[in-house]
Amino acid sequence: MDQSAEPSTAVAVTQTTRDEEGTTTVHLRVREVPSIVVVDRRGGQDGAVRFRFASGVHPWQLSAEESYAMLRALMKATK
């Protein structure tokens, strides 16, 4: 899979909320299913990014292309 290309899968971020420094709650729709993910970037620019899938679709329920599209949407929403 060419990871530089945008996947054709429909993933839409509907809301982002900065909870505290370094964490963001992201509301998105994947496969038309509302989902909520808490993204923890407190490790800084070079640290690990942690994801807590609070509700809705989880990456292991998706195809590789859909999981990749979801990850890209989450990373863009929390920059």
Secondary structure topology:
Blueprint: E1 11-20, E2 23-30, E3 33-40, E4 50-55, H1 64-77
Antiparallel strand pairs: 1-2, 2-3, 3-4
Descriptive notes:
The protein is α+β, with helices and mostly antiparallel strands and 79 residues long. It has a 4-stranded antiparallel β-sheet with strand order 1-2-3-4. Helices cover 18% and strands 41% of the residues. The protein contains 1 helix and 4 strands. The two termini are 24 Å apart. The chain has one domain (11-77).
Number of helices: 1
The gyration radius over C-alpha positions equals: 12 Å
Number of strands: 4
What number of structural domains do the residues give? 1
Biggest β-sheet: strands ordered side by side in the sheet = 1-2-3-4
Distance between the termini: 24 Å
Order of helices and strands: EEEEH
| Biggest sheet architecture | 4 strands, antiparallel
Unreliable spans = 1-7
Shape type: globular
- The share of residues in helices is 10-25%
Strand content: 35-45%
Q: What is the structural class?
A: alpha+beta
Average pLDDT across residues? Answer: 88
Task: Briefly characterize the structure.
The protein is an alpha+beta fold and 79 residues long.
What distinguishing features does this structure have?
79 residues; alpha+beta; four-stranded antiparallel β-sheet; 4 strands; disordered N terminus
